[in-house]
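This part of the workshop introduces the protein records we will be handling. A learned vocabulary of local backbone shapes supplies the integers on the structure line. Getting from the letters to the tokens is the skill we practise here. As an example, a complete record with its sequence and its structure tokens follows.
=====
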Amino acid sequence: MCGNVETERRDLGDIVMKEMTDREVIKHLRNYVKSNHGLFSWSTDACGYDQHIKFVKYRNKYFKGDIDFNEFILGYVDKLEKEKQNG
């Protein structure tokens, strides 16, 4: 994962994706839940492969459909912030 580096690049053939740090993901997701987005849009599409997979694994383990998905995303953001605080 790229939580301790400012930027990490992954070469995917002709596509080079910038991997977001946890801090960047937190900011991105807070803005995402405030935006008008499609029902089937991926909240972590812009975050890079590793961050996207990290979120998908968390979602698969913990999301049961019992709360609004935006609330679930904000819960994930809170988890990332706590991890950053605890080092």
